From TrEMBL:
Keyword Disulfide bond: yes
Alphabetized PANTHER family for the sequence: NEPHRIN (PTHR11640:SF136)
Subcellular location: Cell membrane
InterPro entries: CD80_C2-set, Cell_adhesion_signaling, FN3_dom, FN3_sf, Ig-like_dom, Ig-like_dom_sf, Ig-like_fold, Ig_sub
SUPFAM superfamilies: Fibronectin type III (SSF49265), Immunoglobulin (SSF48726)
Organism ancestry: Eukaryota, Metazoa, Chordata, Craniata, Vertebrata
Natural source organism: Lynx pardinus
Name of the protein: Nephrin
Length: 1270
C-alpha cells in the first residue's frame, strides 16, 4: 500500500480535471468506448514494449494502471522515467511505451478512462506484460573449458546450473567433436527448477550420467541452455580425455622362417601396439628378463613402436623373446613372443699332444672341436698329404650342439721337420666357411761337428790381456746350445754390477747350418794355466745327451791379484790399540808392501810369506795404531807395488771409533729472533754412533720430540720455533745421547720485541717555577741508549721546541726533565720509544702547571648596568685562570654575600684552567644593589680578586683609542674601542670638520655596533678634525674625552696612499675643483626637505617612544625556552642561561679591554644584517641645520651619491664587553641563518635610538630608563 499512496495525487488532479471538463460543451453524438484494446505482450529484457489503447471519449482523461497503481494522465509519466504515452490524443491514441524493459515491468496493465458528463469511467480488460530474462551464464561441473580425464566404461556425473532466467531454461547435454555441429544427445538427464535470486527468476540444475567409450576420446561434452529469451542457445563444454587400454602387440619378423637365426647375426625386431590412451608402454623380455625398455609413440595415430636390436649368440638357442604392451588403465599385460632356433659353428678347434719328436719316432695327436649346431666332421693334413685318423667320436655339447673328436698316430722322419700338420672341420650347414687348426712338426736330430778358435796354444799372456775364444758347431735340431767351461765349471758373467766385468759371454749365433758362441775375457791371476772347454749336446726323448768338448790352456804374468787388510778388533774406542795386517794373496813376480794414514807414512813390520794361489807369490806387513775420537773416519791405506810390472795395487781400512757426543767449536750459544717471527737453534755435535735422541728442555719442561703447535725438532737435532713470543726468551738445554754416552749444551734465545709503555704518569703536575720529570717506563728488548724521543703536541702555530727541557734515559726508563716550569710549557707531550722493532711505542701524557688564580682585570673598575626598579635582573661575570680548580667568593661593599638570599644565584663553571662564576641578582633594587661587588678566586696556591660596580642605566662612556688605520685622498679608515654602553645598545656617530671650512659634518656608523669605519667624501691634501660620539637611548657620550677625537690630513693626489690592500676603491669626483660646494648644496637640500617632513615628525616621535619602551621591557624578561640561541633572536631568554651556555663552549682569550660586563645583544655578537646589498643614502649633515636629530633618517628617500656608504659592508663588528671570550661559541640551532620574522628593515634601524631625544625631556622616558643614581 505504501507504493500506491503517491498515486492518489494524480487521481485528485484527474478529478479536478474531469470536473472542469464537465462544464465544457461536448457533441451529443460522440459515443464513448475503446476502439483499440491492449493485448497480452511478451518481450525480452532490455527490449521496448508498447501496449495499445484507443479511446473514443473526447475530453476524458486517460491513464494506465500497473498492478492497480495508476500511472497518471501526464504523457511523460514522471514517476517512471522509462514510461511514456505515445500517439495522438486528439485521435484517442494513448499507447503505453516502455523503454529497456526489465523484470520490474512484468505486471498486469489496464487502460482507464475517467468519467465525464457524457458517461461513466471506462476500464479496459487487464493484460499481462511478460518480461523474458535470458540466462547469462551456465556453470558446469567440472569447470567449463577444462579437460577431464575419464576411464572408458566408468560412469561419471556432470552437473550444469543456469543463471537467473525467466522462464527457467531447458538444459541438454551433447557429445560432439566440434561446435556448433550436432552430436549425440545424452538421455540420462535429471533436471530441477529452483527459485532464482529475485522474484520471478528461476534457475535450472541438470545432472547427466555419462559413461565414456574409447571412441569419445577428444570429444566435447556440451551443456546447452535454451530459452524463449535466447535467439541462440548458450553452451559451455569440457573436453573428454578418455583413457582406454592399447591393442595387442605384434612382432614383425624379418624373413619367412620365423625363429631361425645364425649366431653372430644382428637381429632387429619391431614390436607395434596400436590404440590406447595413453599409448602403450612397450618392453622386450628374454626368458622373462627385461632387455629393452625404450619405445617411441606416434600420438596422432596412437601407435607405440619398440625396436629390439641384438647380436645373436650360441647361448640364445631356445631363448624366448617376448614384447609386452600395457598402459595405466590396462587390466592385464598383453604379450607376443617367439622362440629362437640358433645355428652356430664350433668356436674353436684344439689339437692335443706334442708335435716335437725325435726322428723315426711315432707322434700321437687328438683334434677336439667346441660345441656346434649341427655337428661337424674332421680330417687331417700333413703338408699336402691327407692322413687317416685312428678314431672319430661325437658328444653332446653346450646350447643344444655337438662336440667332434678325432685321434691320429703316425711315424716322423727327418724330412718331415717343419711341415704343417692341420686338423680341418666341415659341414653342409657351413659350406662357405672352413674351420682349421694347424701346428708345425718339429723333428729332432744332433749336430755333426764342434771346434774352438783362439790364440795359439802355449803363448804367454800378461794379466789384463784381452783374449777372444770362439766355439763353432755344424748342424743339429734343435739348434745346439754351446756352453763354455773353465776347469770343469761353467763360465758365467759376474752378476753383481759393482764387480768389474772381466768375462763377456756372447750369445748363440747362426749362419746357415753353422752355430757359434764367443767368449771374451780379461785375463787375471785365476786364469793362469786354466783349461777352457766348449760343449754342445742335444736331448733325446729316450737316449743320453751326446757331449763333445774342446780344450784350451792359458799361461799368464800376474800382478798382485788382491790386497787384503786384516784388523785385530772391530769395535774401537778412544785409547784402544789397533793392529792392522796387509796381505797380498798372489802375484807374479813378488811385490813390496807399505802403510800410510791420510797421507802420513806409518812404520810397519814384515810378516813371513805364505803359499800363494794361482802359482804366484804372497806378501804380508802389519802396523800398530793408538785410537782417539779424531781418528774416526780416517783411512789407513796399504799399497802393494810391483817394480818389474810398474804397477801398484792399494787397499784402505776406514777407522770406526765409537765415542760419546762431543759439541764442536762452531756450536752457536746465542740465537736472536724477533717476536712473532721464527727462530732456529742449531746443533753442531759429533758422535759415533750418531746421537739416538736430541732432548730440548726449557725452564724445566721437556719439549716434545714429536713437535708441538709452535716448535719442531729437526732431523739433525736443531730446534725450530715459530710465532716466537717474549715468553720464549731464555736458556734452552740440549741433551744428546748415543750408546757411548751423553753430552749437554745451553743455547740462549734472545727474543727482540717492540716496546710497550708500562708506566707513564698522566697527568704530571708541577707548580709554576718548579721542576718535574715526566717518566716513561717501557718493556722492550733490546734496550738501546737512544731509543727514547719526546714530542710536544698542540696547535701548528704553537712553539713545540723542547730546547729548554732535558732528555735523559737509563735502561728501560726515559725522562723529560723540566726546570723552572712555565705556563706555556703546559700541554700534551708524547713519549716515543723505538728500539728498531716495529712498531714504535707512543704514549700521551699531559703536563699540568699549577699556578695561583689570575682574575681578569679588563679595567680598574668593571661596570654592570641594570634598571633599579625591582623587576629587572643583572648578571655579574667573574672569570679567572688557575690550577688546581678555583673557588669563587663574592662580597658586596666588603661584606660577604649571603648566597642563601633567593635574590642571589651563583653558577660556577670549570673548563681546563679557565674558571668562571656567574652571579645573578634578581629584582635589582637601586637602594640595595647599586654597590661595589668583589669577586675573589682562590685555590691552594693563592688568590686574586676583581671589583664590579653595579650601576644604573646611563648614557654611554666615550669611546677610546680612536686612531687612523688608512688614508687615501678621499677617505680615512678609523678604528676605536667602545666604552661602557650604559647598559643599553649603543651606536656611534662621526663628527668632522675641514679646517678653514665653517660648519661640522656628521656621519652615522653602519652597522651601529662597528668599531671600524671608513670616512669618505673627503678632499685631498686637507686637514680634518674628527670626533667620535657614542649614544644610546639615554643620550650621547659627549665630546670632552680626548681619546674620542683626532686630527688627520688626507694625502695629495701625487702622494702614496696609506690605505691597506683590502680597502675598497672609492669613487673619485669628476670635477675636484667644485667639490667644496657639495656641503653647501647638501645644506640647502636639507632645508628644503625640512618643510616637507615636519608634519610627519610628531607622529614618528610618538611611535619611537612606544617601541623603545616595549623593547626595553622585553629585554629584562627571563625565558629558558630557547637555549643556545642569541637573545636578539629570542628576547625572552634568561641572561644567566645564555652566558652559561656560551661559557661552556668558550676558550680562554686574554689581553682584551672590556669596559662593560652588561650582557646584551652587543656583548656576544653584533645584531645587524648583511649590508652587502644595502647602501643607505645618508649624506653628511651640517651642524648649523636646526632640526631634531631623531628625524635624520626620514631622508631615506632622498637621492644621494651611492658611494658615500660603499665602505659599510666591509666594517667589522665591535668586540663585546668580554672581548673574544664568546667569539668561538659554536653555532646553535638558530645560528646558521637569520630568521625572516626577526629581520628588521634597515631603513628604520635608528628609529629607536634614544639619543635623538631632547635631553631636557627626561620625563617622557619610561621608568626603566630613568634609573636611580646612588
Amino acid at each position: 500500500m505504501a507504493l500506491r499512496t503517491p498515486g492518489r495525487v494524480p487521481l485528485l488532479l484527474l478529478g479536478l480535471l474531469t470536473t472542469g471538463l464537465a462544464h465544457l460543451p461536448l457533441p451529443a453524438s460522440t459515443p464513448r468506448g475503446f476502439w483499440a484494446l491492449p493485448e497480452n505482450l511478451t518481450v525480452v529484457q532490455g527490449a521496448t514494449a508498447e501496449l495499445r489503447c484507443g479511446v473514443s471519449a473526447p475530453g476524458s482523461a486517460v491513464q494506465w494502471a500497473k498492478d492497480g497503481l495508476l500511472l497518471g494522465p501526464d504523457p511523460r509519466i514522471p514517476s517512471f522515467p522509462r514510461y511514456r504515452l505515445e500517439g495522438d490524443p486528439d485521435r484517442g491514441e494513448f499507447h503505453l511505451h516502455i523503454e529497456a524493459c526489465d523484470l520490474s515491468d512484468d505486471a498486469e496493465y489496464e487502460c482507464q478512462v475517467g468519467r465525464s458528463e457524457t458517461g461513466p469511467e471506462l476500464v479496459s480488460p487487464r493484460v499481462i506484460l511478460t518480461i523474458l530474462v535470458p540466462p547469462k551464464v551456465l556453470q558446469l561441473t567440472p569447470e567449463a573449458g577444462s579437460t577431464v580425464t575419464w576411464v572408458a566404461g566408468q560412469e561419471y556425473v556432470v552437473s550444469c546450473v543456469s543463471g537467473d532466467a525467466k522462464p527457467a531454461p531447458d538444459i541438454t547435454f551433447i557429445q560432439t567433436l566440434l561446435l556448433p555441429q550436432g552430436g549425440q544427445t545424452i538421455s540420462d538427464i535429471s533436471a530441477n527448477v529452483n527459485v532464482g535470486s529475485q522474484e520471478k527468476l528461476f534457475t535450472t540444475e541438470a545432472t547427466a550420467r555419462v559413461t565414456p567409450q574409447s571412441s569419445d576420446n577428444g570429444k566435447l561434452l556440451v551443456c546447452e541452455g535454451s530459452s524463449p529469451a535466447l535467439d541462440t542457445p548458450i553452451r559451455v563444454s569440457v573436453t573428454m580425455n578418455v583413457l582406454f587400454p592399447p591393442g595387442p602387440p605384434v612382432i614383425e619378423w624379418p624373413g619367412l622362417d620365423e625363429g631361425h637365426v645364425r649366431a653372430g647375426q644382428s637381429l632387429e625386431l619391431l614390436c607395434v601396439s596400436r590404440g590406447g590412451n595413453p599409448p602403450a608402454t612397450l618392453q622386450w623380455l628374454k626368458n622373462g628378463q627385461p632387455m629393452s625398455t625404450a619405445w617411441g609413440t606416434e600420438h596422432a595415430e596412437a601407435v607405440a613402436r619398440s625396436m629390439l636390436v641384438m647380436i645373436v649368440r650360441p647361448e640364445d638357442h631356445g631363448a624366448r623373446l617376448s614384447c609386452e604392451a600395457h598402459n595405466s588403465v590396462s587390466t592385464g599385460i598383453q604379450e607376443r613372443g617367439v622362440t629362437l632356433q640358433v645355428t652356430f659353428p664350433p668356436s674353436a678347434i684344439t689339437i692335443l699332444g706334442s708335435a716335437s719328436q725325435s726322428e723315426n719316432k711315432n707322434v700321437t695327436l687328438s683334434c677336439i672341436t667346441k660345441s656346434s649346431r649341427p655337428r661337424v666332421l674332421l680330417r687331417w693334413w700333413l703338408g699336402w698329404r691327407q692322413l687317416l685318423p685312428t678314431e672319430d667320436m661325437v658328444m653332446d655339447g653346450l646350447h643344444g650342439g655337438h662336440i667332434s673328436m678325432s685321434n691320429l698316430t703316425f711315424l716322423v722322419r727327418r724330412e718331415d721337420n717343419g711341415l704343417t700338420l692341420t686338423c680341418e672341420a666341415f659341414s653342409e650347414a657351413f659350406t662357405k666357411e672352413t674351420f682349421k687348426k694347424s701346428l708345425i712338426l718339429n723333428v729332432k736330430y744332433p749336430a755333426q761337428k764342434l771346434w774352438i778358435e783362439g790364440p795359439p796354444e802355449g803363448q804367454r799372456l800378461r794379466a789384463g790381456t784381452r783374449v777372444r775364444l770362439v766355439c763353432l758347431a755344424i748342424g743339429g735340431n734343435p739348434d745346439p746350445s754351446l756352453t763354455w767351461f773353465k776347469d770343469s765349471r761353467a763360465v758365467t758373467e759376474p752378476r753383481p754390477p759393482q764387480e768389474p766385468r772381466r768375462v763377456q759371454l756372447g750369445s748363440l749365433e747362426k749362419s746357415g747350418s753353422t752355430f757359434s758362441r764367443e767368449l771374451v775375457l780379461i785375463t787375471g791371476p785365476s786364469d793362469n794355466q786354466a783349461k777352457f772347454t766348449c760343449k754342445a749336446g742335444q736331448l733325446s726323448a729316450s737316449t743320453q745327451l751326446v757331449v763333445q768338448s774342446s780344450l784350451f790352456r792359458l799361461i799368464l804374468e800376474v800382478p798382485p791379484t788382491n790386497v787384503t787388510i786384516l784388523a785385530n778388533a772391530s769395535a774401537l774406542r778412544p785409547g784402544d790399540a789397533l793392529n792392522l795386517t796387509c796381505v797380498s794373496v798372489s802375484s807374479n813376480p813378488p811385490v813390496n808392501l807399505s802403510w800410510d794414514k791420510e797421507g802420513e807414512r806409518l812404520e810397519s813390520v814384515a810378516i813371513p810369506p805364505r803359499s800363494a794361489p794361482f802359482k804366484g807369490s804372497a806378501a804380508a806387513r802389519s802396523v800398530l795404531l793408538r785410537m782417539s775420537s779424531r781418528d774416526h773416519g780416517h783411512r789407513v791405506t796399504c799399497r802393494a807395488h810391483s817394480t818389474e810390472l810398474r804397477e801398484t795395487m792399494s787397499a784402505f781400512y776406514r777407522l770406526n771409533v765409537l765415542y760419546p757426543p762431543e759439541f764442536l767449536g762452531e756450536q752457536v750459544l746465542v740465537v736472536t729472533a724477533v717476536e712473532q717471527g721464527e727462530a732456529l737453534l742449531p746443533v753442531s755435535v759429533s758422535a759415533n754412533p750418531a746421537p739416538e735422541a736430541f732432548n730440548w728442555t726449557f725452564r724445566g719442561y721437556r719439549l716434545s720430540p714429536a713437535g708441538g703447535p709452535r716448535h719442531r725438532i729437526l732431523s739433525g737435532g736443531a730446534l725450530q720455533l715459530w710465532n716466537v713470543t717474549r715468553a720464549d726468551d731464555g736458556l734452552y738445554q740440549l741433551h744428546c745421547q748415543n750408546s757411548e754416552g751423553t753430552a749437554e749444551a745451553l743455547v740462549r734465545l734472545d727474543v727482540h720485541y717492540a716496546p710497550t709503555i708500562r708506566v707513564l704518569q698522566d697527568p704530571t703536575e708541577v707548580n709554576i717555577g718548579g721542576s718535574v720529570d715526566i717518566v716513561c717506563t717501557v718493556d722492550a728488548n733490546p734496550i738501546l741508549p737512544g731509543m727514547f724521543n719526546w714530542e710536544r703536541l698542540g696547535e701548528e702555530e704553537e712553539d713545540h721546541s723542547l730546547d729548554d727541557m732535558e732528555k735523559m734515559s737509563k735502561g728501560s726508563t726515559g725522562r723529560l726533565r723540566i726546570r723552572h716550569a712555565k705556563l706555556d710549557q703546559a700541554g700534551a707531550y708524547q713519549c716515543i720509544v723505538d728500539n728498531g722493532v716495529a712498531p714504535p711505542a707512543r704514549g700521551l701524557v699531559r703536563l699540568v702547571v699549577r699556578f695561583a688564580p689570575q682574575v681578569e682585570h679588563p679595567t680598574p673598575l668593571t661596570k654592570v648596568a641594570a634598571a633599579g626598579d625591582s623587576t629587572s635582573s643583572a648578571t655579574l661575570h667573574c672569570r679567572a685562570r688557575g690550577v688546581p680548580n678555583i673557588v669563587f667568593t663574592w662580597t658586596k661593599n666588603g661584606v660577604a654575600l649571603d648566597l642563601q638570599d633567593p635574590r642571589y644565584t651563583e653558577h660556577t663553571y670549570h673548563q681546563g684552567m679557565v674558571h668562571s662564576s656567574l652571579l645573578t641578582i634578581a629584582n635589582v633594587s637601586a637602594a640595595q644593589d647599586y654597590a661595589l661587588f668583589t669577586c675573589t678566586a682562590t685555590n691552594p696556591l693563592g688568590s686574586d680578586r676583581t671589583n664590579i660596580q653595579l650601576v644604573s642605566i646611563s648614557r654611554p662612556d666615550p669611546p677610546t683609542g680612536l686612531k687612523v688605520m688608512s688614508k687615501t685622498p678621499y677617505s680615512v679608515g678609523l678604528e676605536w674601542k667602545p666604552g661602557f654602553d650604559g647598559g643599553l645598545p649603543q651606536r656611534f656617530q662621526i663628527r668632522y670638520e675641514a679646517l678653514g671650512t665653517p660648519g661640522f659634518l656628521y656621519m652615522d656608523v653602519l652597522p651601529p655596533q662597528a668599531t671600524t669605519f671608513t670616512l669618505t667624501g673627503l678632499q685631498p691634501s686637507t686637514r680634518y678634525r674628527v670626533w667620535l660620539l657614542a649614544s644610546n637611548a639615554l643620550g650621547d657620550s659627549g665630546l670632552m674625552d680626548k681619546g674620542s677625537q683626532i686630527s688627520v690630513t688626507t694625502p695629495g693626489l701625487d702622494q702614496p696612499s696609506g690605505e691597506p690592500d683590502y680597502q675598497l676603491p672609492t669613487e673619485q669626483p669628476t670635477r675636484p675643483s667644485r667639490l667644496p660646494l657639495m656641503p653647501v648644496l647638501f645644506a640647502v637640500g636639507g632645508l628644503l626637505l625640512l618643510s616637507n617632513i615636519s608634519c610627519v615628525g610628531g607622529f614618528l616621535w610618538q611611535r619611537r617612544l612606544r617601541r623603545l619602551a616595549e623593547g626595553i621591557s622585553e629585554k629584562t624578561e627571563v625565558s629558558e625556552s630557547t637555549p643556545n640561541c642569541p637573545p636578539y633572536l629570542y628576547p625572552g631568554r634568561s641572561e644567566e642561561d645564555r652566558v652559561r651556555n656560551e661559557y661552556e663552549d668558550s676558550q680562554w682569550t686574554g689581553g682584551q679591554d672590556t669596559q662593560s660586563s652588561m650582557v646584551s645583544t652587543t656583548d656576544v655578537e653584533p645584531y645587524y644584517h648583511s649590508m652587502k646589498d644595502f647602501s643607505p643614502q645618508l649624506p653628511p649633515t651640517l651642524e648649523e641645520v636646526s632640526y631634531p636629530r631623531g628625524l635624520t633618517h626620514l631622508e631615506e628617500d632622498m637621492a644621494f651619491p651611492g658611494h658615500l656608504y660603499d665602505e659599510v659592508e666591509r666594517l667589522n663588528a665591535p668586540s663585546g664587553a668580554w672581548g673574544p671570550l664568546y667569539d668561538e661559541v659554536p653555532m646553535g640551532l638558530c645560528d646558521p641563518c637569520w630568521p625572516e620574522e626577526t629581520y628588521e628593515d634597515t631603513r628604520g634601524i635608528y628609529d629607536q635610538v634614544a639619543g635623538d631625544f631632547d635631553p631636557m625631556e627626561t620625563d617622557s622616558l619610561p621608568f626603566e630608563l630613568r634609573g636611580h643614581l646612588v
